[in-house]
Amino acid sequence: MPTPDATDPALLNIDGAIATITLNRPAAFNAIDLSIAKKLEQFGAEVEGNDNIRVLVIEGAGRAFCAGGDLQTIGAAVEANDVDSVVGELLKHYHAFIATLRRMPKLVLASVHGSAAGAGLSLAFVADLCIAAEDARFTPAYAKIGVSPDGGGTVGLAASVGPRRALQIFLAEDGFSAAQAYDWGLVAKVVPAIELKAATREFALRLAQNAPAGLAATKALIHRAPTTPIQAQLDAERDAIIDCMNTDEFRIAVKKFTSKSK
Question: What does the pLDDT read at residue 7?
Answer without folding.
Answer: 87
